[in-house]
Write a structure and sequence with these properties.
The complex is a heterodimer of chains A (99) and B (486). Chain A has 99 residues and is mainly alpha-helical. Chain A has three helices and two strands. Chain B is α/β, with parallel strands linked by helices and 486 residues long. Helix content of chain B is 39%, strand content 12%. The relative contact order of chain B is 0.14. Classes of the chains: A mainly alpha (99), B alpha/beta (486).
Chain lengths: 99, 486
């Protein structure tokens, strides 16, 4: 597996991750992501034919709970932590989405 | 000077000290010592004194509370209602949660008094507490050295006697490794044993909350308080909670301890290995049987762990987008939404968090998912099977907690891979969902603490704590105090 990263590749990954990077970060991550994935190559060589993947170690089936209406987080309390919101109207405020 | 949870609780119960007196002493000690150590992000003095006074006023109601009047600290990634919760990140620097984590409610119901929130690596990503937006915490045994991480502030607070009990979170060793490097006890319970409702998620298939204390007995008492099913966390288990304090009989005769010696052939500091072997001898002296075992895939655990943990982190941290809580980049006002997201996250997250989000995004992206992420999940199965096979023959697996003692602040910040490799003995327990504990097992020649790690069967905390307690009785390293009062 190739593990050299170009600045263009790093910028493409950053776009997927919604991260605006500084030019020096692009250079740094190109090297460091490459270093880690070169190291991780050892895993690619392991024979895993027929081995099921483990996503999580859940140890016993969990009990179901009754589907009852219960109080949830208060709207005003939820909005109070936002960087920009109208608590009176009950909205988070964001930059224009539709032109 | 440094007191245990049990001692403090018994004093408040008997009336020898009021909860307010205990609280004042803890706050005074933090004020005197913490400026040198940086264990706390936030000290909740006013809130703590009010709470302690409330306990003192209603003594009858609280008389049986297992943590009556005990000052506690919480890692700053555990949500506390009306108290700032930052995850040591700029992006949450002024975040005040509208709710308490389940563990916080349980500790409060047990009579504990929250005195503050502790420093950590940003979003629990790191092994040294250097990746904090608020600066590093310092090791009480050698303040020019790291305390370990990511729950470094919690380990420092307990080691320096600022509090007898702190909670941490452990995704790949973040409770056990700082406990080892600071000379305290750190327990990562079985995946599902403790509710994670209100823990800021890093890697959801690996994260678990647990205690850092001075003694194994204190860890057992705390686990009994915080363990158990929680309707608010679907991954919490309904497995019955054992009576952990009652399990500490001191009798470990007949227990079989597996030692995966071939894992220690390279990369482990000689002094760490000597302390570890002496600990095994001490346990053998109490009647356990040592068995040589193999964990053939454990040496791949670091690569598997960082592929899986970063993938999960890239998904979990997508929620920090400058809309519902936390920081929004001021420069993005009036710009379009995508620019606001990218700028907020680019400015709000530190280097290590960005590095991991990038790696996680890459391994989940089209064309690489099968090669990296799926492959890592398959090898995770093999690591799990190794432990299942080992636990057919032994009750507990023993390793050093960390391959080296605390290193100097700044020494490894430019070499993330080298930093990751130091997690080699801790990440497997998270990948396999197993409980594991670190107990102090000696010092290097430079007086730096070394930890012994014991890993048990799923929900085998009672056996694990019994063994750790028996070792502590045999080798009371925990009674030694760092030179912080000088």
């Amino acid at each position: 597996m190739g593990t050299e990263f170009t600045p263009a590749q790093v910028t493409a990954i950053a776009a997927l991750a919604q991260l605006e990077l500084e030019p020096h970060e692009v250079q740094l991550f190109a090297r460091q992501l490459g270093d880690f994935l070169t190291y991780a190559d050892e895993v690619l060589a392991i024979d895993t034919a027929g081995v099921a993947p483990t996503a999580a170690v859940l140890t016993r089936p969990e009990s179901e709970r009754p589907d009852q209406v219960r109080p949830s987080l208060d709207r005003e309390a939820a909005l109070r932590g936002a960087p920009d919101a109208s608590i009176a109207s009950g909205f988070f405020r964001v930059p224009r989405v539709i032109g | 000077m440094i007191e245990s949870v049990h001692l403090v609780r018994d004093q408040v119960r008997s009336g020898a000290q009021s909860a307010v007196e205990v609280c004042r002493q803890a706050l005074a000690r933090i004020e005197r010592i913490d400026p040198r150590l940086g264990a706390f992000n936030t000290v909740t003095a006013e809130h703590a004194l009010a709470r302690a006074a409330e306990l003192d006023r209603d003594r009858d109601r609280w008389s049986a509370a297992p943590l009556l009047g005990v000052p506690i600290a919480l890692k700053d990634n555990l949500c506390t209602r009306d108290i700032r919760t930052t995850a040591s990140s700029r992006i949450l620097e002024s975040y005040v949660p509208p709710y308490d984590a389940t563990v916080v409610t349980r500790l409060a119901d047990a009579g504990a008094v929250l005195i503050g929130k502790t420093n950590c690596d940003e979003f629990a990503m790191g092994s040294s507490t250097e990746n904090s937006a608020f600066g590093p915490s310092r090791n009480p045994w050698a303040p020019d050295r790291i305390p370990g991480g990511s729950s470094g502030g919690s380990a420092v607070a307990v080691a320096a006697g600022l509090t007898p009990l702190a909670l941490g979170s452990d995704t790949g060793g973040s409770i056990r490794q700082p406990a080892a490097l600071c000379g305290v006890v750190g327990l990562k319970p079985t995946y599902g044993r403790v509710s994670r409702y209100g823990l800021l998620a890093f890697a959801s298939s690996l994260d678990q909350i647990g205690p850092l204390t001075r003694t194994v007995r204190d860890a057992a008492l705390t686990l009994a308080v915080i363990a158990g099913a929680d309707p608010a966390d679907a991954t919490s288990s309904s497995e019955p909670v054992a009576d952990y304090p009652a399990a500490l009989t001191g009798d470990v005769r007949g227990l079989r301890i597996g030692v995966p010696s071939s894992l220690f052939e390279t990369g482990v500091d000689g002094e760490v290995l000597r302390a570890f072997r002496a600990a095994l001898d001490a346990l053998a002296g109490r009647g356990v049987t040592l068995v040589d075992i193999e964990l053939p895939h454990a040496r791949h655990a670091i690569a598997v762990y960082y592929l899986i943990a970063t993938a999960e982190a890239s998904s979990n941290l997508a929620r920090y987008d400058g809309v519902r809580y936390g920081f929004r980049s001021a420069e993005s006002r009036g710009d379009d939404l995508a620019i606001m997201y990218g700028r907020t996250r680019g400015r709000g997250f530190g280097a290590e968090v960005k590095r991991r989000i990038m790696l996680g995004t890459y391994v989940l992206s089209a064309g690489y998912y099968d090669a990296y992420y799926l492959k890592a999940q398959q090898v995770r199965t093999l690591i799990l099977s190794d432990y299942d096979a080992a636990f057919q023959r032994v009750d507990v697996v023993a390793m050093p907690t960390s391959p080296g003692a605390a290193f100097r602040i700044g020494e490894r910040v430019d070499d993330p891979l080298r930093m990751y490799l130091a997690d080699i003995f801790t990440v497997s327990a998270n990948l396999a969902g197993l409980p594991a504990i670190s107990v102090p097992c000696g010092f290097t020649a430079d007086r730096l603490p070394v930890g012994l790690q014991l890993t048990g069967r799923r929900f085998g905390e009672a056996t694990l704590l019994r063994l750790a307690d028996a070792y502590e009785r045999e080798a009371p390293w925990h009674t030694q105090e760092p030179p912080i009062d000088a």
